[in-house]
Structures are given as structure tokens and as C-alpha cells.
Design a protein that fits this description.
Strands 2-3-1-5-4 form a five-stranded antiparallel β-sheet, sandwiched between helices. The chain is built from 20 helices and five strands. The chain is mainly alpha-helical and 511 residues long. It has two domains: 39-388, no CATH class; 398-505, no CATH class.
Length: 511
């Protein structure tokens, strides 16, 4: 081959390049000024964020006294399996997945003598810690590495996140599952295949079984996915995943509606103040965070309008907040359901919007300074909450205050059937009952006291008492139990702690 032929061949090879499909599954380009991090660096950042989240929760661990809903959750988890499934298929359908996890865990920890409330709150904290690096991994594919790092850091110090990571309820499990379902959605859109579709659908359905409002996030995910540049190849598998998630979510919603016993009757009518408080809670009480959130929403809207993979990421971050809040408001216009903590599932999207607003400053030093400033503001809210509340009260000693001053013959009114399980255990341990002195009132029949005037119990207890115990009294226990239902007994004193009310009774009239 002559030198001229070799040169011509080399020129031809330079000119030729194979066609690139617009639906290529190559990684999405990083935003300008945000170079794509290596896998090793990203993994180190995720682990560091998880460590920060764990450290924050350990510092905040003294927490607060348990409250009624936590008592119910732990007591439900201690039900025998058949009774537990019956409750989860009825009035306690919302949050059923968390209760199942907790029930399995307590069957291991109860024989070891571990405090049930501490175990339940540790379970929630575990979900909360995992959610932080999971959001970073999802965020770096949606809004870039830098914004994902800022968003993950802000989530770890968010008062909204920390508060419910230390509560024995299902909110943090729902938050983690919506983040994991987002990761599954991204995998589905980048490499459409049946396994990814099934994973997305199952995670979305499980999130709804952790909390019903997670169904609103599924709607946001599907709407945003329609803007993905590879949607043509992924449309069939997206439909399959959405169908699986939709069926699972619909089953949870129908079951909860069927078992609705007025659990949400306390929620007030929809108002603009309620809507405003949702965003204040999403900001963790740090209203200053609403400024970068608003800026991030503007940035996301502009980027989303340009299309492409960056546009899809911005659209999903924006929809993650707008769609759940919007649907919750729409539903609440018909049936009041708007409660800020129910929209904790929108918190990951909110923190990504805050991160987008901060990273819009472009210059690394400005971004770092602003991120640090807002992290300090958010952490201050966590610290203020920690200083304002006393230590935890273990559920197995929820009635310690009451039992410490109770006398044989006094009555304990339990305001939810599930709490009777824990009270049974504690009374048996102390040798105070329950024995034959436990009485199950007729559902919907308000307890009344004092044989003459028969005044009803406190409105929160009237008609909702799950059981009544009279502390063991060989001479008059059964008589006092009957008396506590209004057959000639007078109440001389009463006190309430955590859904359990102590009633000090006189001797039954006529004895």
C-alpha cells in the first residue's frame, strides 16, 4: 500500500462514525459545571451521607414521650397472627406493612426483654437512615451529583425527616419505599426490561401499603416518565409497572375505605392555612428553606421545558412535590384528609428542589456556603425540638405513672382495643390483673360514670374504649367493674397518660 493510500484510509476512518440511537442507554450528561463523579466517589458520598443521618438521629435520640398512635401501633404488632391480620384487613389497613415488619421484629425482641417502643423507633430510624443515601443515588441521576449531595445532606438534617425517623409509625418506611421505587423507575427507563417493571410496580404498591398517600407519588412518577427521551422503548414496560403499582395501591385504598371507622374524623375542613403548613413542614419548620425551594421549582420548570434527560429529571423532582400536594388538596376538598405528616412522601422531591435552587448559584464556593447555611438552619430546628421535649417513655411502662398511684379496685379505661394487649402484660407483671376484672364494652356504647347523673367520659374516649380493667381486688373487683359502667359508682379522681385513663372509684353505692 502506497503512502497516499494509507493517508486516504486514515482520513476515511476519521470521517466515519457509527450512528448513535437517540434512545441510547448511556448515562445522562451531567449538568454544566457538575462533572460526573466516579462510582467510587459516589459510593463514598452515599456512605458519608448515611453516617451523617445516623449521627443526627443519635444526637436527637432522647426524642419525646410516646403518644397514642405509637401505643396503638406497638400494641397491634403484639396481637396473635389471626387477630393481627383481621385488624390490618379492617380499621388498621393504613400502615399495614410497617405493622407486619414490627410484629415480626417484636416476636424476636420481646422474649429478650427489650423495650417495645425503643425497638419500634429503632426500626423507623433504620428506614430513615437508609433513605438518605438512597435519595442521593436517585438524585444524582435526576439533578446531577452536586445537587444530589446537597439534597441528601439537607434531608439528613431536616426536622421533618428526623422527627418521623424517631416515631414508631409507618411514615419513614413509606418515604424510603417511594425513593426506592424512583430508583427502580430510573432503571426501567434506562434499560427497559420485565424485571425492572415488576420491581417498580411492587415497590410502588408496597409504598402505598406503608401509607396511602404514597399512591400520589406513583401518579407523579408516571406523569414525569412520559417526558423521558427513551419513553418509546419503555412505554410497554412502564405500563406494566404502573399497572402492578396501581392495582396494589387500589387494593390498599379500597381496604382502608372499607374499614374506615371514623379514624380521620378529627381532621378539619380544607383551608389555605392547612396547605401553607404542609410546605412549612416540608421545610422542617425552617421557613428560610422555602426560598431556595421556590428558586429550585423555577429552575426545574425551566429545565423541564427543554426536554431531554435533564428535563425529565427536573420534571420528576418538581412533580414529586406538586402532584402529591395537589392531589391531597383535591381529595380533601371532598373528604378532609390534608395532614402535613401524611405528605412526608413528598419530602425527597422537596429537598431536591431546594438543592436545585442552591446549585443555581453555579460558583462552587457560593453553592457550598449556601448549602452550609441552610443545613445549619435546618439542624437548628432539630436541636430546638430536642431541647424542648423530655425523654422517651417506654410503651411497656406507659401506665407507670398511673399504676404507681393506683390502688386495688381502681379502674383503667383503655381508649383503643390494641392497647389492651400491652396493659394485659403490665398488669400481669405487677400482679394487679387482668383476671376476671377485665370488661369489654360494647362498641359505640359510651361509658358513663356516676349512677345518678351518668356523665359520659371525655369525648376522646366516649364510645371508643377498647377495654376496662379493674385492678385486682378479691372482695369487690367484679362489682367495681360493673360499677364503672355506670351502675352506682362515683369517680373521685382521674388521670390520663398515653391513651390509658385511671379512674379512682368509691365503694359501689348500696354495698
Amino acid at each position: 500500500m502506497t503512502s497516499e493510500e494509507r493517508v486516504a484510509g486514515s482520513r476515511a476512518s476519521v470521517r466515519y462514525s457509527p450512528p448513535v440511537s437517540p434512545d441510547s442507554s448511556a448515562p445522562s450528561p451531567a449538568p454544566p459545571g457538575d462533572a460526573r463523579w466516579s462510582r467510587r466517589v459516589a459510593l463514598a458520598a452515599a456512605l458519608a451521607l448515611g453516617a451523617v443521618a445516623l449521627g443526627v438521629l443519635l444526637v436527637a435520640r432522647p426524642g419525646r414521650p410516646m403518644w397514642f398512635d405509637e401505643c396503638v401501633t406497638v400494641a397491634l404488632a403484639r396481637y396473635p397472627l389471626a387477630q393481627l391480620l383481621g385488624q390490618l384487613g379492617g380499621t388498621e389497613a393504613n400502615g399495614a406493612l410497617y405493622t407486619v415488619f414490627l410484629a415480626a421484629l417484636l416476636r424476636v425482641t420481646d422474649p429478650l426483654g427489650l423495650d417495645a417502643l425503643a425497638v419500634a423507633r429503632t426500626l423507623s430510624a433504620t428506614f430513615g437512615v437508609i433513605a438518605v443515601p438512597a435519595l442521593f443515588l436517585a438524585g444524582r441521576r435526576l439533578v446531577g451529583d452536586r445537587a444530589a449531595l446537597v439534597g441528601g445532606g439537607l434531608l439528613s438534617v431536616s426536622h421533618f425527616h428526623v422527627f418521623y425517623s424517631l416515631e414508631a409509625r409507618s411514615y419513614m418506611l413509606a418515604l424510603l419505599l417511594v425513593v426506592l421505587s424512583t430508583l427502580a423507575l430510573l432503571a426501567l427507563l434506562e434499560k427497559p426490561r420485565p424485571a425492572a417493571a415488576v420491581a417498580f410496580g411492587l415497590l410502588a404498591a408496597l409504598a402505598t401499603w406503608a401509607h396511602l398517600f404514597a399512591a400520589f407519588v406513583l401518579a407523579a412518577q408516571v406523569l414525569a416518565a412520559l417526558r423521558h427521551p427513551g419513553i418509546r422503548r419503555a412505554r410497554a414496560w412502564l405500563a406494566l409497572g404502573a399497572a402492578i403499582g396501581g392495582v396494589g395501591a387500589a387494593a390498599a385504598i379500597v381496604l382502608a375505605m372499607h374499614g374506615d371507622g371514623g379514624q380521620t374524623a378529627w381532621i378539619g375542613p380544607l383551608s389555605w392555612g392547612q396547605v401553607a403548613m404542609v410546605f412549612v413542614h416540608l421545610a422542617g419548620g425552617a421557613r428560610l428553606l422555602l426560598l431556595p425551594a421556590a428558586a429550585g421549582a423555577v429552575v426545574a420548570a425551566v429545565v423541564a421545558s427543554r426536554g431531554g434527560e435533564r428535563g425529565f429529571g427536573a420534571a420528576l423532582a418538581l412533580a414529586w412535590v406538586v402532584v402529591p400536594v395537589g392531589l391531597a388538596v383535591a381529595v380533601s376538598a371532598v373528604k378532609p384528609l390534608l395532614v402535613a405528616r401524611y405528605l412526608l412522601v413528598a419530602l425527597p422531591g422537596f429537598t431536591l428542589l431546594v438543592a436545585l435552587g442552591i446549585c443555581a448559584l453555579r460558583r462552587p464556593r457560593l453553592v457550598a456556603g449556601a448549602a452550609l447555611l441552610f443545613a445549619v438552619v435546618a439542624a437548628y430546628e432539630v436541636g430546638r425540638d430536642r431541647r424542648a421535649v423530655p425523654p422517651w417513655q417506654p410503651i411497656d411502662r406507659v401506665s407507670a405513672r398511673l399504676l404507681g398511684i393506683a390502688r386495688p379496685g381502681d379502674a383503667l379505661v383503655v381508649s383503643h382495643p390494641a392497647l389492651a394487649v400491652s396493659i394485659d402484660r403490665e398488669l400481669a407483671r405487677l400482679g394487679l390483673g387482668p383476671g376476671p376484672e377485665r370488661v369489654e364494652p360494647v362498641p359505640g356504647d359510651p361509658l358513663s360514670l356516676d349512677g345518678a347523673s351518668r356523665p359520659p367520659l371525655d369525648a376522646r374516649l366516649a364510645g371508643r374504649a377498647g377495654a376496662l380493667f379493674v385492678l385486682r381486688d378479691e372482695r369487690s373487683g367484679s362489682a367495681r367493674a360493673r360499677a364503672a359502667f355506670g351502675i352506682g359508682a362515683r369517680v373521685t379522681d382521674d388521670e390520663e397518660v398515653g391513651g390509658v385513663r385511671l379512674l379512682r372509684l368509691e365503694r359501689p353505692l348500696g354495698r
